[in-house]
Amino acid sequence: QVQLVESGGGLVQAGDSLRLSCTASGPTFNGYTWGWHRQAPGKEREFVAAISPVGTTANYADSVKGRATGSRDNAKNTVYLQMNSLKPEDTAVYYCAVWNAVLGQYTVWGQGTQVTVSS
User: Fold this and answer.
1) Is the dihedral of CA 107, 108, 114, 117 positive or negative?
2) Is 28's pLDDT higher than 80?
3) Under a CB-based contact definition with an 8 Å cutoff, are residues 51 and 80 in contact?
4) β-strand partners of 22
5) Rounded to 5 degrees, what angle do the CA atoms 68, 62, 86 make?
6) Nearest 5 degrees, angle CA 27-CA 5-CA 3?
7) Which label site among 20, 23, 44, 112 has the fewest CB atoms less than 10 Å from its CB?
8) Is 9 exposed, middle or buried (0-12, 13-18, 19+ CB in 10 A)?
């Protein structure tokens, strides 16, 4: 069974950095686009970043552009999200997901990792 496990979240202060990781167990997703999303309390889940299959390109939400860097290590079946200059509004549960190009949506999701940024 496919499983995505996120890690690296925590409680940090504004201006700090974090690197989130997401590792897939089971089938490899090396040929797929992976995405990062987040959901803050009382808000809908929102897109954060998408990382191409070879990790050479990534797209970012405007809210994190310039502060976030997505990458991947296909040998480890792992993707990363480096977040710098964190702001209190970055507080959310961060999820990784795998894009299904046939269905046109993210279909495999992790359980999420909490990021809390104090002011």
Assistant:
1) negative
2) no
3) no
4) 6, 79
5) 40
6) 35
7) 44
8) middle
* Residue 110 and residue 5 in contact, taking contact as beta carbons nearer than 8 Å: yes
Q: Is 107 helix (H, G, I), strand (E, B) or coil?
A: strand
Strands (E), 1-119: 3-7, 10-13, 18-25, 34-39, 46-51, 58-60, 68-73, 78-83, 92-100, 105-109, 113-118
Q: What whole-number distance in Å separates Cα of residue 24 and Cα of residue 10?
A: 21
DSSP, res 76: G
- On whether the CB atoms of residues 36 and 49 are closer than 8 A, the answer is yes
Given pLDDT bands bounded at 50, 70 and 90, which one contains residue 62? very high
**Can you tell me the mean pLDDT for 47-75?**
92
Give the Cα separation of 65 and 67 in Å (integer): 5
* DSSP code for 93: E
Any idea how long the chain is? 119
Q: How far apart are CA 100 and CA 89, in angstroms?
A: 29
Residue 61 token pair: 């939400």
